[in-house]
Specification:
This protein is of the alpha+beta class and 174 residues long. The chain contains five helices and six strands. Helix 3 runs antiparallel to helix 4. The longest helix is centred in the middle third of the chain and has 17 residues.
């Protein structure tokens, strides 16, 4: 086998990728110590491989600034995922009945029960000029992320991404 692969169990023909740390032990220890501070947030930067350590109040300020923008966000009185779960399941069941997908595919696409609510978080855009930050030279803008993992549409979105992503790579950027 190649040097970066190692046998997981010598009696089985399965391989496990050996991961190499990109941090020294001192850096790992320092990060673990920082994680115990409740007044800070540790996030990866929006671009590059930098880790950003932010004051929790500043991070919350930027999150609230974005969430208050009614052009992009609207407050909900109740979660909508129970309703969308019903719609997604109805559509998937129809696809199974029409033989577009089999039962095993239906189970994968249906996802977890109950679905997990989506989480909102930010990746700080520290690559931008500090004068252009949300609070210039103090608080960087954040790239908003809404995690779809384990939601009612995760399996369907995963499948669509699998087929559409190669097509999007062929499309010329404008």
């Amino acid at each position: 086998p190649e040097p970066h692969l190692q046998r997981k169990n010598p009696r089985k023909n399965k391989y496990q990728l050996k991961q190499k740390d990109n941090l020294t032990q001192e850096e790992i220890d320092a990060l673990e110590e920082l994680q115990n501070f409740n007044s800070i947030i540790i996030k990866p930067a929006d671009k590059g491989s930098t880790i950003v350590i932010m004051d929790k109040a500043d991070y919350a300020w930027e999150a609230n600034r974005q969430l208050k923008d009614r052009e992009y966000y609207e407050p909900l009185k109740t979660p909508i995922y129970p309703e969308t779960r019903t719609m997604v399941r109805r559509l998937l069941k129809e696809l199974e009945e029409q033989k577009y997908i089999n039962h095993k595919q239906l189970l994968f696409l249906t996802g977890t029960d109950p679905p997990r609510p989506r989480y909102f978080y930010l990746l700080p855009k520290i690559h931008k000029e500090p004068a252009e930050w949300a609070k210039p030279f103090q608080i960087p803008k954040g790239r908003p992320i809404v995690s779809d993992c384990c939601s009612e549409s995760y399996g369907s979105a995963y499948l669509l991404d699998h087929y559409l992503n190669p097509l999007s790579q062929k499309h010329r950027a404008t």
